[in-house]
Specification:
Layout: E1 8-19, E2 22-33, E3 37-41, H1 48-55, E4 63-68, E5 71-72, H2 77-83, E6 84-87, H3 99-109, H4 114-127, H5 143-155, E7 161-165, H6 173-188, E8 192-196, H7 200-206, E9 209-214, E10 217-222, H8 224-229, H9 232-235, E11 237-244, H10 249-257, E12 261-267, E13 270-276, H11 280-292, E14 297-303, H12 307-319
Parallel strand pairs: 3-8, 3-9, 6-7, 7-8
Antiparallel strand pairs: 1-2, 1-4, 4-5, 9-10, 11-13, 11-14, 12-13
């Protein structure tokens, strides 16, 4: 493994984490450059949270090393913690404590005093749009409001490296859009973000690069576009969405009997298919044959390969 590049903020080298008989993380190695927004993707139990907890100094690798700003997280945890902001997938609440009191408490814990503390709390409340909630009891907040509060708490010490574990989980569409805007603003300010999420499409919009993990091992590290392209064979395919009158059973059977076609996803009224051949003439010929073969097609259009499809297909290839 080559040494980290000069602008590397985070360097992970051959990290393993073993719990009793469970080998949760198996030899992870990757770099994160300053100012990057990195998406961290994997199924439940893949090792995402364990990896992030080790990066945040909340857990210790069984072997290997993690360095942030060239400081070892095990050997220099106190220095590392001044650089890292941690947003867990859930956090505890306190009875009889308002949003302002909660942030003020943590600002004190971070060492802010007097007017400087009040100013920093106000800055965070303004940035995370928590001002209207200042007097709201924190244990009475909605899911989205609670996530914003946890987000604000993470920002109090102005960390350089932000680690977010499923920050958009359970949020409604409006709250997810607001979260994406906050990520964009932080990236513009030069922050480095490491975001775990199951919502791959949204990560693809926010992230410079994506890191996929499965069974504790990295299976992909690159841009969303490189993942969508997939293998050379997949890059030569076009994805099409076909809607039928009635059920999709006949369409699924037709795809299985026609070379060059394969089923991606069956729905009640149609299916998403992959077809070999990228040019318009192939699509036109495919639609013509469907209709000539008697399929009651009511809509037919091409689409981009979804990140979710690419991820599932990649895992299938690794397991085969």
């Amino acid at each position: 493994m080559p040494p980290p590049l000069p602008e590397t903020l985070v360097s992970v080298r051959d990290v393993h984490r073993v719990f009793d008989n469970v080998h949760a993380v198996q030899g992870l190695s990757f770099d994160i450059q300053r100012g990057q927004v990195v998406g961290f993707i994997g199924a439940n139990g893949a090792g995402k949270t364990t990896t992030m907890r080790m990066m945040a100094t909340l857990d210790t690798p069984t072997s290997g090393s993690i360095r942030i700003a060239n400081e070892d997280v095990v050997q220099q945890p106190e220095h590392t913690r001044r650089l890292v902001g941690w947003m867990p997938d859930h956090f505890g609440t306190y009875a009889n404590m308002t949003v302002f009191e909660y942030l003020d408490f943590f600002a004190r814990a971070y060492g802010f005093k007097g007017a400087t503390r009040r100013q920093r709390v106000q800055e965070v409340m303004d940035f995370a749009d928590l001002g209207p909630l200042a007097d709201r009891m924190m244990n009475a907040l909605s899911k989205g409001m609670g996530q914003r509060l946890c987000f604000g708490r993470m920002l109090l010490p102005d960390p350089e490296f932000l680690i977010l574990d499923e920050p958009a989980a359970g949020l409604d569409p409006k709250a997810r859009m607001e979260f994406k805007n906050l990520v964009r603003l932080l990236a513009q300010r030069g922050k480095t973000l490491f975001i775990s999420s199951h919502i791959l499409s949204e990560l693809g919009e926010m992230c410079d690069t994506m890191l996929f993990i499965d069974s504790g091992k990295i299976v992909h590290h690159g841009s969303a576009e490189s993942l969508r392209r997939g293998t050379d064979a997949q890059a030569a395919e076009v994805m099409v969405d076909v809607i039928m009158e009635g059920t999709a059973d006949a369409l699924v059977e037709w795809a299985s009997m026609n070379p060059g076609w394969r089923l991606i996803e069956q729905r009640r009224d149609g299916a998403r298919l992959a077809m070999v051949g990228k040019d318009a003439s192939h699509l036109a010929a495919g639609l013509k044959k469907m209709i000539q073969d008697g399929l009651p097609v009511v809509d037919f259009h091409r689409e981009e390969r979804r990140l979710e499809d690419a991820f599932v297909e990649m895992l299938k290839e690794k397991q085969s």
